[in-house]
Amino acid sequence: MPALKFWHYPGSCSLAPHILLRELNLDVEVIQPTDLSAAAFGTINPKLRIPVLSIDGEIVTEVPAILTAIAQLAPAGHSLLGKTPLETARAYEWMNWLSGYLHGSCYGGLWRPERFTDDSGALQGIKEKAQVNIKNAYGFVEERLGAGGLYAVGDGFTVVDLYLLVFYRWGKQIGLEMEREFPKYTDAMKNLVKRESVVKTLEETKLAPVFEAKI
Ligand SMILES: N[C@@H](CCC(=O)N[C@@H](CS)C(=O)NCC(=O)O)C(=O)O
């Protein structure tokens, strides 16, 4: 097995690859950087973002690439990227959209509107439009969940389901009524959080369970 190092931040998009590392029981050095400035982090990732994975010293960035790199460390015959070539294409279709559109464009607009304009008067409008785009994007997820509705790709678990968990948590964080408004997405995530790897990673990163037990 290669030597692995993983830079993450609890609750961020790094959660998906973090769970995958635990799913595969990989031996990895996990690092939570406190400073993402160019001076502190620039040599690790010049884009100054987490997550970052180092495989025998080779740095890999971007969630879809990192999920792919980790999945390739799974025993032969795994279906973490889909069971057929078409399912693999679907997995990349999902990951590209989640990373580029939902994360970069929608959540970027909401949480980092200054990336889209130098006009301080335009910031509020960008945030408001981003809120609408996020909600519509979740509607799209709800419609596009695969056969049976429990998985994103086909009828089995793939890395895309882990990536969807990141955005499900964020949806709750920004106050969307995820359970009421997106019942299929919710069922898929309720199914996913039963995995030991999810439970372990949430504990490890000191994040609350996604669905609190009803008393
Ligand atoms: N496209 C990148 C996005 C990475 C990204 O934006 N990560 C966030 C955490 S979710 C981050 O590092 N934020 C720090 C910042 O914006 O300063 C990916 O898919 O990995």
TrEMBL record:
Listed Pfam families: GST_C, GST_N
> Where do the coiled-coil regions begin and end?
none
The record places domain GST C-terminal at 84-211
- InterPro entries assigned: Glutathione-S-Trfase_C-like (IPR010987), Glutathione-S-Trfase_C_sf (IPR036282), Glutathione_S-Trfase (IPR040079), Glutathione_S-Trfase_N (IPR004045), GST_C (IPR004046), Thioredoxin-like_sf (IPR036249)
Name the source's superkingdom. Eukaryota
Q: Which SUPFAM superfamilies match?
A: GST C-terminal domain-like (SSF47616), Thioredoxin-like (SSF52833)
Against PANTHER family, the record matches this protein to:
GLUTATHIONE S-TRANSFERASE GSTA, GLUTATHIONE S-TRANSFERASE-RELATED
Which family is it part of?
A: Belongs to the GST superfamily.
Q: What's the protein name?
A: GST C-terminal domain-containing protein
